[in-house]
Amino acid sequence: MLNDTITLDGENIMSKTKLTLAALVLLLGATQLMAEPKSDAKCCQPMPAGGMAALERNIIYPTFDRLVGNSADVILNFHVDVNGNVSNIKVARSGGANFDNSAVSAVMNTEWKPAMQNGFPVALTFALPFEYRYK
């Protein structure tokens, strides 16, 4: 989409955006102003190699919490490099030690594909939520 023409009512929005930015640079005397319309069409976040089902197979509901019916939400931040290696796992939102450890273990034991941008792998740190619900 970065090379595609974006039109609205027959007008080229991409060209107008670049012209507007150029005018702002001239008017404001900015020494450094960079912006381009973003598109998700050519990029994606890291994903488990076998899809989300592969990650779900590695999630183990903590035994004690399952027995007593506890539920929790956990959010992990972690880095996936260009080769799909996971590092710097941090708990951004804790659901308790048992749930946190289960989420970290699931991420570590899953093979990851790196994020892609314009067809090339890129390193990315992102947040992944886990929802533990006893049914």
Protein model, in words:
- The chain has 135 residues and is α+β, with helices and mostly antiparallel strands.
- It has 2 domains: 7-38, no CATH class; 43-132, TonB (TolA/TonB C-terminal domain, 2-Layer Sandwich), CATH 3.30.2420.
- It is built from 4 helices and 10 strands; from the N terminus they run E-E-H-E-E-H-H-E-E-H-E-E-E-E.
- The chain has helices at residues 13-28, 52-57, 63-68, 97-108; strands at residues 7-8, 11-12, 43-44, 47-48, 72-80, 86-93, 112-113, 115-117, 120-122, 124-132.
- The strands form 4 sheets. Strands 3-8-9 form a 3-stranded antiparallel sheet, with no helix packed on it.
Fill in the keyword field for this structure.
alpha+beta; 3-stranded antiparallel β-sheet; 4 helices; disordered N terminus
